[in-house]
Amino acid sequence: MSDQSFHIVCTNCQATNRLPRERLNAKPNCGKCGRPLLTGSPQELDAQSVNKTIQKNDVLTIVDFWASWCQPCHMMAPQFKDAAQQLPEVVFAKLQTDKYEQAAAPYNIRSLPTMVAFRGGSEISRQSGALPTNQIVQWVQSLQS
User: Fold this and answer.
1) 30 catalytic, yes or no?
2) What is the dihedral of CA 46, 51, 52, 56, to 10 degrees?
3) Catalytic residue status for 73
């Protein structure tokens, strides 16, 4: 990753976009489909999109690994959404581990919910357990510096 631009994967069409650093806060759109790249809301990942989103995004990407049967996961979902709205320059995404077991397996998730932070394809941190919005925001902000 250069200091001048970032790669951001469009959650709609999966195109990888190169974006100058100064345009990150300008509500950039995908060059292929025209949809917003940084939406300020969590994006649902599937088996095809999870690896590309994690591997190709140069911007901080937070993935919430969750399951449909997990009550704490459901309790944290609105908190995760609120945190995404407060940090629109960060990619927030969700992967349903019981629906996409094979896609989740390489990330060695041992408890749910677990949020994993990635940048440029590398895991930089993880946080297990349901957290309130303010703690999610604090955790993510601590990873931005």
Assistant:
1) no
2) 140
3) yes
